[in-house]
Description:
- The protein is mainly alpha-helical.
- The chain has 21 helices and 6 strands.
Amino acid sequence: MDILKEIIDSLGAAVVVPIVIFIIAKVFKVTTKKSFLAAMYAGVGLAGFMLLINAFTPIISPVIQRMVNNTGVNLPVFDVGWQATALVAYSTDAGMIYLGIGIVLQTVLFLIKWTDVFQPSDLWNNYSYMVWGAMVTTVTGSFALGISCMILMNLYSLLISELLAKRWSKYYNYPNCTIIAMHNVEPSIFAIVIEPIYNFLGLNKIKLNPQTVQEKFGFLGEPMTLGLVLGILIGIIGNMDRITTIMAWGEIFKVGISTSAVMAIFPKVAAVFSQAFAAITEAARKMMSKQTDREWYIAVNDACGYGEPATLTCGLILIPIMVFIAVILPGNQTLPVVDLLAIPYMVQGLVAVHNGNIVKIVISGVIWFSLGLLVCTATAPLFTSIATTVGVAIPATAMLITSFNILGKPLMSLVFFAFLSGSPIWIGVAVVIYFAGFAFYKMNKQKITDYIDVQAAKNA
Length: 460
């Protein structure tokens, strides 16, 4: 397991995914030339995404940090981010065991057609299950309970991912692709449930999305211009304590231009990445049509949707909102900091289901992520105790640590608390709910998929 982890960490998604793509292409009898090009498109696209995001992060991070500091509030639970959480997950015995179990489980579930999502193409995000299972093992002292918790969470995320797959693929324009990371697909369930309520209230009539903004405001509505405006606004909010200085305005405009650059360049990189799946999709359809009408999806890293205009726009809008919510939310003790930059990852399920309707996405984000803050508050003591044992440092101003993105999951936390209790009754309830949901979805798959599309189309 250590060797496997080292290989995945050393190669990274931009190398692992092309290898997986090449193998899949050859399985579907795509020519070696086309298979190689497909793999290269995937690698170049992912590398491009990472270069953009990694260049953008250090520019906007100081502004976000200053924005949080300017609140003057010292909440005891500090958000150290998904990166630190991944380190914790991969540093636990239970997590390392699941690294191997997960690969086998996910591959078998796809091959026996339990799921139509091929998850092993996004192995890195398995840490999302690991951290929850590790906490269960720590409290209960049972590896069996911890591993079982990870497996059930994995099953839940596969079901949600399959439910979202067609909508995500269609909205983000990646043929037969979907996201699988549990921490980022989970909010889509809330979006699916509340979408008809929003439509009943008439929010679908508020046509506020990147396309309509561009139509109404011309060049001012272009993604590049929109990125400039949003970046400048975020920069101003983060520099209110020194707004009269030249240094502040230099940073404000730097953030504006950088956000504009992401908005302008990201779609071009996305176009390169999407070419990786054209040959595979066509070959798969030909092969599958002779055997079965199965429609399947390749799990891709959620970096693929980060810079889409509605996604990045809503992510940036929600950053100051969630800081404000954290301060006023009764019962909350969590201060979101590092994972504020992960919000464009976190909203992708909402964006796809709400079809880019910015008003709906922001409202859903506020509701779901606020519940997530309370979950972070509840789980922080346990996560902190595990993190400190593997060497994660606690910031001087904090008493406890968490990850707003990974641990702020209202739905998955219910599964976690069931296993944490050790009660066969609550664990049984969590298992029964999964199988009931799985059976209902499989029996009504086409109807449910069409329903989600119909609801989303009302926002067009």
